[in-house]
Design goal:
13 strands, 2 helices, two-stranded antiparallel ribbon, eleven-stranded mixed beta sheet
């Protein structure tokens, strides 16, 4: 009987130690790649959908279509178009993608977006949530939400790739949004290409999953 009681106590202590060790483990960041997709070959036709909150999606599914989709990266009256407001989060007039991501984004974010056009400076902005297409500063109304991470890069001359590295980030994500905002210093027009086996535009990052999950997507 005494041996049985001792054995039970020992097993209880071992089980308690294992449970404590497991509870003390911290979730490790998971490397994640999201690919940019679109619903239409000509991205400008999606403006009305974006205004209503239906953004272009980014997810873990690699593009399968060889034909690229595209949308203009427009600034400062290029091609007769008026100047979009640069202080907008989720502007339908700029290339924007949203992905279902939940967790904490840590380390570096690397974004690659195929493009063709004229060289121009671009602000690449990332939010850990979706502020909405009306989140703009205009006419004295403050609605703009600062991004969790931002970096300025140059669009290439001719065909090439916009590559942005947002270093050492650390912020929570409920949904992840990325926007490419031209710096309004003069007429600029570039088309970005995506959702194609020939033009795989994507976003890479590490994410700590929520408790009980193995992935943030």
């Amino acid at each position: 009987m005494k041996r049985s009681i001792v054995l039970i106590l020992v097993l209880g202590l071992v089980a308690g130690s294992v449970a404590t060790a497991q509870a003390g483990k911290k979730a490790k960041p998971v490397k994640t790649t999201l690919y940019f997709h679109g619903g239409s070959p000509i991205g400008e036709t999606e403006i009305a959908d974006i205004v209503s909150g239906l953004y272009r999606k980014m997810d873990t599914t690699e593009p399968a279509d060889p034909t690229a989709k595209s949308v203009a990266l427009v600034a400062a009256g290029a091609g007769g178009i008026g100047t979009p407001n640069p202080t907008c989060a989720g502007s339908p007039l700029f290339p924007v993608w949203v992905g279902d991501v939940e967790g904490k984004i840590v380390g570096d974010i690397t974004i690659k977006l195929s493009a063709v056009g004229a060289p121009a400076p671009i602000d690449v902005r990332v939010w850990g949530m979706v502020p909405g297409p009306t989140a703009c500063d205009s006419q004295g109304v403050e609605g703009y939400v600062d991004p969790h991470a931002e970096v300025r890069v140059d669009a290439p001359a001719g065909p090439g790739e916009i590559e942005a590295v947002l270093e050492d980030v650390n912020f929570p994500a409920q949904r992840l949004m990325v926007q490419f905002t031209p710096v309004l210093e003069g007429p600029t027009a570039t088309r970005v290409l995506y959702d194609s086996t020939s033009f795989i535009s994507q976003m890479e990052f590490s994410c700590v999953p929520p408790k009980g999950s193995k992935s943030c997507v």
